[in-house]
Amino acid sequence: MRVLVTGATGFLAGHCIEELLKNGYEVRGTVRDLHTADVAHLRAVAAATDGVLEFVEADLTVDTGWMRAVDGCDFVWHVASPFPSRLPRDENELIGPAVGGTLRLLRAAEPSTVRRVVLTSSLAAIIYGHDVARTYTEANWTEVGRADPYPKSKTLAENAAWDFAKQSRLELVTVNPGTIIGPLLHAERPTSLELIRRMMRGQLPLVPRIGWATVDVRDLARLHRLAMQTPEAAGNRYVAAGPHLWAGDMAAALAERYRPRGYPIGTLSMPYSLLWVLGRFEPGARLAVKYYDRCERVSAAKAQKELGWTMRPPTESVTDAAESMIQHGLVPRR
User: Which positions are catalytic?
Assistant: First the structure.
């Protein structure tokens, strides 16, 4: 069977392609430009697994290419969506591609051979805009009127997908991951790993009290496969994240392993006042201020019970991410 994976050059998409190839599926990946896309690492995975992998050109912002992309596919994993490293000036920079791209794909898939679409949504479509602290599950939805552009884009895109599915023959499953961490397949700089990279390079001597519910990219790719293969998963959302992980916990795990090798990893706490001042000058710090002392409590019990999904310890994901950065030259060897 053939599976279409959108946004093939992305951090998560690369691991999704690897998961599919290792499990005997043929894979077609979408890229914005066939001539400039960096796919050498994906071709290496295909060669190592003796798998069938091809690429087609398709962009979330235009209609061209999507009919060709879905042609002959049995399943679609819609992974592609813009993820910002800073707050955009115009929220439509995120909302347009997220919502429009999702609908373009679904409209192309509707008359095709595709049976099921697994949509990569986000915890951002679940946990924002609520006043009461709680443990969030698939039953919760972000209040878009009180959400920043990124959570708003993910919520509106997922809502649009469910509205489409109600009138469609397509089966839809959504996976709602937390912050995605874990090893790189090649030399790239995903936004979700930037904090770990800066810690490893000694660029963060003080650690702010920020954190997220995280998920290992390899576990998340496996959950996509389980959501595709399990007949009863159709029509369901699945939270994909473990316990909240503070940046201080990340720093402690990295310091234990890498300080003996000469890496200057800071573990002292950064006061809120200093983070606020830095936020006046640095976009990344400005975004971090919004997350200060905020704890994300979610439950992945549904995916664990219905799909048999498991997660590795988050500190393992942190150190595996760091080791891959050393291997790919994003962090100097010491």
Answer: 154
